[in-house]
Every structure is written in C-alpha cells, then in structure tokens.
Amino acid sequence: MLYRSLNKESQSVNFETALKNGLAKDGGLFYPEKIKKLDKSFLENLHNYSNIDIAFQVIKQFIGDEINEKDLKVIIKNTIDFDFPLIEIENNIQTLELFHGPTLAFKDVGARFMANCLAYFNKSNNEITTVLVATSGDTGAAVANGFLDVKGTNVVILYPKNMVSDIQERQLTTNKKNIKALKVNGTFDDCQQMVKKAFVDKELNSELNLTSANSINVARWLPQMFYYFFALKQIKANNKKIVFSVPSGNFGNICAGIIAIDLGLPIHHVIASTNSNNTIPRYLKSKIYNPRKTIKTISNAMDVSNPSNFIRIEEIYNDFNLLKNNLSSYSFNDGETISAMKSVFNKSKYILDPHGAIGYLGLKKYLNTNPSFFGVFLETAHPIKFSNHIEKALNIKIKIPNVINKIISKEKVFTEVSSYKDFKDSLLDKYVAH
Ligand SMILES: *Cc1c(COP(=O)(O)O)cnc(C)c1O
Questions:
Q1: 364: Cβ below 6 Å to ligand 1?
Q2: Which atom in ligand 1 lies closest to the alpha carbon of residue 304?
Q3: 319 Cβ neighbours under 8 A, 6+ residues apart
Q4: Could you confirm whether 107 is annotated as catalytic?
Q5: Ligand 1 centroid, distance to 82 Cα (angstroms)
Q6: pTM for the whole thing?
Q7: 220: which of 110, 191, 264, 316 fits an S-S bond (Cβ 3.0–4.6 Å)?
Q8: Tens of pLDDT along 378-415?
C-alpha cells in the first residue's frame, strides 16, 4: 500500500516509510492512496470470525506485502490479546468497552500495533528510531507500555503540566529504560506543536531518526478500525440503522471509524462527541474553522482544540454538506458530563468515565431526533484513571486494578521543559535545567 501526503507536495511512500517518518517530508499527514471494499460475505458474517482473523482482513490491504501473513498475524495477536465487550446500557444503547488493555485506555491497540511493526522492520538492522509522542494523558502511557524494551527504539513523551490525572502521570513517568518523560509548561496543543516542529527541524533530523506515535502515524491510527468491526460482530440491532458516538479529541479514533465505513461496514452515521473544546461542533454549524485556546476539562484526554486528524476526515468527505450528512458533532461541558455519569449510574449501575459519558451524551442527543437508530458509544478509558472525579460524583469507591496498584507508589521521573529549545536540547541530550 502506498500513502500520499495530504499536503500534496511529497511523493507517496510505502507503509514502512510512513510508519518510520510519521509525517510526510512536506509536513502533511499520510493518507492511503486507495481503499478497497472488503468482501460482502466477510462483512455479513463477522460473528463467524475470531477477532484476530477480523483484524487481519481489515488491516492487510494497508500493509500489502511488506509484512508476510504469518508475521502480521503474530503482530495482531500481540496487539489485541484482550477483550472488547459490548455492554447494554439502555434499550437501543450499548457501549463498546475499549479499556481492557494493559494501560486501561483504547490507545493500547494502536500503540502496540505500531511498536510491533517497528520492531519487525528493525529486527535485522541497528537503526535507532526516536519515537516522539505528545499526550493528553492516555496515548503516552499506551506508547510507553507498547514500546518498553522494544529493540531499536527510544521514546520521548511530552505531556502538559497540570492537565493529566495523577494515575496518568504515573503511567507516563515510571517506566525508565528506553522511555523518557517531558513535562511541558503548556497545553496538549503546545506539546503537539513541538512534535510537529521537530519533524521539520533540519538539525534534529540530521542527528536522529524521528517518528511520531500520535494518531498522525498511520500505524497508530489505522488499527483503531478494529473496534468498529468488533462491535458489529456483537451487535444484534434487528435491522435498525446503526450510529456510533465517539468521544473525540484529536479525531483519530472517529476517523478510523469512517475508514471502516469506507471498507463497507454498515454504520449509517457517526457522532463526534467533544468536551468544551468544541472547534468541530462550531465548525459544522458555522463553516468557520476557528480553534480557541484549549480549555482544561475533566475529560482531559480530549482537551484538544485543533484536532490533527480532522484534515483526514475532510479528505474523505470533500464537500461540506456531504460531511454534515455523515457526521454530527456535539459538545458537552463538565457539568453535563457529571450529570450523565450520575444518571447512568443511578439507572443502570454502570460507571462511565468522563470520556465515555460524553460519548453517551452525544448519542442520546442524536437519538432524540433519530429514534429509529440503534446506538453504540465507545467507552475509551477505565474509570479508575479518573477516579477522583467519579468517586466524588457517584459517592462510590472504585476498586483499583492490579496494573495500577503496581505503579501507584513508584517515583515519578520527568524533565520539565518550557520551550521548543528546552525540548530540542533534551532530545540531543544537551538539556541543562534552569
Ligand atoms: C485519546 C482519547 C480520546 C480521544 O481520541 P482521539 O482519537 O484523539 O479523538 C478519548 N478518550 C480517551 C480516554 C482518550 O484517551
């Protein structure tokens, strides 16, 4: 499979190069050159396939012959060796739980797939790839976990100071080995900006092989298609039209869902549910794209005001009305998020995390005016990651999973950086604290 740059100036590259470079030379995001629909018989009989077989069928055209079938299946097996249960919340509303991986958020799938692919391509050379990752909380943890001890990789995590939860920060800063954490005096958008700048920094690129493990990287982004297939495998919608609500920040997950639809998956509408960082809901109303300053919310993994992947969605629906017909987007503030967590807990005893709660709210809003649909929202993180907010709102105590118990008393190790220069010096091991 070849990937072209959405900035249209660089030449197309293969999967390995797209994976290793992260961004195209012209600074554009990579996008698959052509997407072939999957077989009808496969799509209609998902329930007869294992998750590994489904994932293999879904991803194989995006890799082509660059990884052989046997090794690709091993990579997939290492990536998705946990459950993706679909749980009923209310009549016509179910949630797909994506938090059963090692770091308790959906990012584990993309991060592990990317790490395994990179290890595969680097297994017989001595290349060192420096993996940069800006995180609003969960990506960094998943990437650290997926890349820990992976041969030929050094990982540098940038996270915004005071904008991630305590458990998230521990997951980012207690890894050591080939994982380094940078605490940035700024927002997630600032972190993301530094990463993007690093890619076009000639000096850095002459010294290091840089790649990004954010959803701008195709190897992180595309495996997220699996979720939608795993959900459809389990749904019994009784011929109703299906709508998915995706709690969205950088819009990678929802964009992967739209590619899944392109592959032929029968999903009839998607909803991008956001917190108060509502650039896209405002854009769909006004046609004016106007990111504002990032606001800190309790659904911090979605505190993104300039979502990187939106440009990919515009590439798919290259007409504003077409976009609006296929995608709705609503935003909800912290008060509404907490009310949703309370009402769902009181009615169904289900504990939503703040991100899932926003997904639920977006779905409810859509179903209000489209009651004939059957809805699924994605539950993107385990509630323990946000236990401070949830325990207060619901007046409960959440049992701490073992993976969290193991890190809760470990010392946080990080370098604090305040500027692009600090960041660059730290990449080049020249950083002096000031
Ligand atoms: C990253 C994240 C999101 C947002 O996903 P995007 O692909 O960036 O839109 C939502 N919920 C949680 C818990 C996350 O970690």
A1: no
A2: 8
A3: none
A4: yes
A5: 19
A6: 0.95
A7: 110
A8: 999 999 999 999 999 999 999 999 999 999 889 999 99
